[in-house]
């Protein structure tokens, strides 16, 4: 908690408001501009003495709920609210504005990664965009409707999605998918899209329900990925996870050390690209067969 910074910020934001800004009558003539301390305390639902001590640098650390109340009382912007949380020694609430488009900065980076598989995924696992290398490696999602592009949903409802990864890693990947979704679910209370996704997963079978009941929590981080590609073979990759400031979109980049077998396999994948996917699909005899491992 930064007591001097918190006191200064509260004092200055209070001085920048008028009673009319917050729906209060002007009252008697004021000697100084801005709201009175008792007015801010009234708006935030706390005692005048407690609020006064915060501005005097001698108050106890306010709770996150109290900080949120002060932010509303002082009509703070999102950036100002986040700053107030930091000064009070708390992490600010995550902002969750539903996004159906990819941030321009991420698209710019994606365009530069012409020889490396990369894709942008939402914080709940929706694949938003892929570069051609990622489509060749993991399956092209372009032809799928948006509601069928979620990696967690596909993991629990489509066997070919699991066939892309070694069987001995399935349990770990299952736990990782559910734990990441749990973390997002707690951070996004009331989110209709996420609530619907969890509902579909719970209805998909006992496996997801059992893992969901364990209440494991973890966020997606960088690590190793092994992909069993039907043409290029076994590919072991480093997966780097780059998050936006709001943590709502993740750029996943799959790389291999130069000069390794994996790097050579990626080079092969770059050559065969989408053509290999087309050939594999046309040769497939039945859905879910080995030839359709990369089918979207």
For the secondary structure, the number of strands is 5
**Radius of gyration using CA atoms only:** 25 Å
Mind summarizing the main beta sheet? 5 strands, antiparallel
Poorly predicted ranges: 280-296
Helices, by number, come to 13
Q: Judging by the overall fold, what is the CATH architecture of the largest domain?
A: 2-Layer Sandwich
Q: What is the succession of H and E elements? A: HHHHHHEEHHHHHHEEEH
Task: Indicate the mean pLDDT.
Answer: 83
Domain tally = 2
The spatial strand order of the largest sheet comes to 2-1-5-4-3
Shape: elongated
The CATH first-level class of the largest domain comes to: Alpha Beta
What is the oligomer described by this structure?
Answer: single chain
What is the percentage of strand-forming residues? 5-15%
Ends distance: 49 Å
Question: What is the fold named in CATH at topology level of the largest domain?
Answer: Beta-Lactamase
Structural class computed from helices and strand pairing = alpha+beta
Percent of residues in helices comes to 40-55%
Notes on the protein architecture:
There is one protein chain. The protein is of the alpha+beta class. The chain folds into two domains: 3-87, lambda repressor-like DNA-binding domains (434 Repressor (Amino-terminal Domain), Orthogonal Bundle); 104-292, 2-Layer Sandwich (Beta-Lactamase), CATH 3.30.450.180. It has helices at 3-15, 37-44, 48-55, 64-73, 78-87, 104-112, 132-138, 151-157, 159-163, 170-187, 192-204, 206-214, 261-283, and strands spanning 118-122, 127-130, 223-229, 233-243, 249-255. The chain has a five-stranded antiparallel beta sheet with strand order 2-1-5-4-3. Strand 1 (118-122) and strand 2 form a beta hairpin. Helix 7 (132-138) packs across helix 13 and helix 8 (151-157) packs parallel to helix 11 (192-204). The chain is elongated.
């Amino acid at each position: 908690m930064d007591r001097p910074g918190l006191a200064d910020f509260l004092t200055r934001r209070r001085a920048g408001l008028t009673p009319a800004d917050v729906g209060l009558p002007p009252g008697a003539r004021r000697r100084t501009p801005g709201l009175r301390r008792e007015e801010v305390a009234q708006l935030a639902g706390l005692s005048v003495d407690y609020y006064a001590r915060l501005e005097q640098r001698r108050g106890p650390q306010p709770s996150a709920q109290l900080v949120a109340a002060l932010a509303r009382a002082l009509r703070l912007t999102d950036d100002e609210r986040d700053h107030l949380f930091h000064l009070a020694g708390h992490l600010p609430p995550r902002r969750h504005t539903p996004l159906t488009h990819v941030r321009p900065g991420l698209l710019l980076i994606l365009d530069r990664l012409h020889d490396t598989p990369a894709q942008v995924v939402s914080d709940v696992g929706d694949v938003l965009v892929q570069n051609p290398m990622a489509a060749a490696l993991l399956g092209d999602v372009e032809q799928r409707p948006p509601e069928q592009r979620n990696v967690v949903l596909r993991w629990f409802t489509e066997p070919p999605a699991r066939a892309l990864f070694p069987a001995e890693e399935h349990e770990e990947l299952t736990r990782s998918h559910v734990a990441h979704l749990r973390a997002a679910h707690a951070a996004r209370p009331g989110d209709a899209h996420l609530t619907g996704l969890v509902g579909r997963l719970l209805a998909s079978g006992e496996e997801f329900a059992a893992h969901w009941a364990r209440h494991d929590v973890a966020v997606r981080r960088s690590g190793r990925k092994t992909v069993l590609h039907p043409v290029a073979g076994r590919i072991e990759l480093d997966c780097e996870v780059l998050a936006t400031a709001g943590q709502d979109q993740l750029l996943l980049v799959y790389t291999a050390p130069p000069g390794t077998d994996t790097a050579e396999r990626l080079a092969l994948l770059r050559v065969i690209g989408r053509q290999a996917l087309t050939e594999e699909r046309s040769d497939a005899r039945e859905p879910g067969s080995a030839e359709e491992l990369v089918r979207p």
